[in-house]
Amino acid sequence: MKILMVLTSHDRLGETGEKTGFWLEELAAPYWRFRDAGAEIVLASPRGGQPPLDPRSGAPEAQTEDTRRFQADARAMAALAATRPLAEVSMDDFDALFYPGGHGPLWDLAEDARSVALIERAEATGKPIGAVCHGPAVLRRARRPDGAPLVQGRQVTAFSDSEEAAVGLTAVVPFSVEAMLRGNGGRYSKAADFQPYVVTDGRLVTGQNLASSAPAAEALLALLR
């Protein structure tokens, strides 16, 4: 069982002058669910190398058992420091694909042709695809083999407009993930703000927010078993 986890390479939070990137918990919780299940994990990003960490997710109050375990693990930290460039990975070498969130993917992975190609190859070959929080932004340009949007007619979730408003970034993000999924024909649903919520439709797993990181990973593993 081999899982490709794709992280953002984008570190600027719009024009605010602040930093963004991937959210640590959304990497760490799935990473440990996969690794503890015996999966081989490869980390990749558009540029390769060390991806940018959203500094808010590295703050002491944002730490969890999973993030502390990740940061204390030499193997995990070495993999994070040396993510493989997307140009060097093929979906044919993996059994599943997973995207952690953080705001970074809204700017790069949502438009990255290599990422889109990985998603479309996974879809065409029946391999599970998972994404959590802002991670479902990566589905924006993805199409099924018949040319329809990948999410069209499928049950999906992601970071909600109300959650985006709660964190004060509605006017900063380049697009609303919720509105994008709806606009592409997805059957979007959500739970209360910041509560765990995961939807599985066929071989597509989406989680609403960082609290959904571990359950989304578990749902993906269920598809692989």
TrEMBL record:
Keyword vocabulary terms for this entry: Glutamine amidotransferase, Lyase, Stress response
SUPFAM superfamilies: Class I glutamine amidotransferase-like (SSF52317)
Segments of this protein annotated with the region Disordered: 44-68
Signal peptide: none
A GO MF label: glyoxalase III activity
Residues in DJ-1/PfpI domain copies: 25-212
Gene Ontology cellular component list: cytoplasm
Gene Ontology BP terms: methylglyoxal catabolic process to D-lactate via S-lactoyl-glutathione
Classification via PANTHER family: GLUTATHIONE-INDEPENDENT GLYOXALASE HSP31-RELATED, PROTEIN/NUCLEIC ACID DEGLYCASE DJ-1-RELATED
UniProt record similarity statement: Belongs to the peptidase C56 family. HSP31-like subfamily.
Protein name: Type 1 glutamine amidotransferase domain-containing protein
Native organism: Chelativorans petroleitrophicus
